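Same chain as my last thread, 285 residues:
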Amino acid sequence: MLEAFEMSFMRNALAAGILVSIACGIIGSFVVVRRIVFISGGIAHAAYGGVGLGYWLQYAVLAGTGAAAARPGMWPLAGALLFSLTAAVVMGFVTRRDRQRADTVIGVLWAIGMALGVVFIDLTPGYKANLMSYLFGSILAVSPWEITAMVVLDIIVLLVVALLYRPLQAVSFDEVFSEVRGLPVGALHITLLCLVAVSVVMMMRVVGLIMVIALLTIPAAISGMFNRRLSLMMVWAVVLGILFTTAGLMAAWQWNLTSGAAVILSAGVCYFLALAWKKVKGEAH
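reply #2:
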């Protein structure tokens, strides 16, 4: 099976899996600790509106200029980043100011984002064969320029978390105490959601927008079962993410499976094994 990595597209896929796992392990740990999985799901699905908008701009507005054919995934990626960041800011404000209606607003934005994506794609002329890759992922089709984009987004995530680690940690574990201490809880909350948005855009080419929440939360959830310190939780979540993406990639290659589904299945199986192990170990003591 190692012979598969002699091909450039397999090496690109492995690099993408590693880069995505870094962002997922770090941001996913905050998502699990802060319990904002539903908000993260809303951001992820709203991003599909940006994919549709980017597709429409690329093939309708830029048709005939030559720019559309240069990097076929660049505009959908930029559109997804724009929509996911916008959704993150809106959801951040709503969840801070009106907790009673937060779930409803998140659900509405979730649905509107998906609907806009479908409408923009319907308006786009031409054959749209590769759109399923944004929903279900296509790690084997990741291009070198997408790897470069992932590196840039990873650097952004690492820098922001490194600069704001202690405030983000404080807000994640005790929001009320953080407010008493004078921390800008609202700004930190929106910043974290924007980091979630960046991570979602990175993941959509690996596992697809439908399954990004699984990859964002499962490695962190497993790590959280065995680590109480947030920093250790992040490290092990990154390691687990790399293991899951690599295992899914190899399974997809070996048995001709959809890569995103193979990654999530490997993570899901390990999650339930970890739960069983914790239960058996707890009963033994």
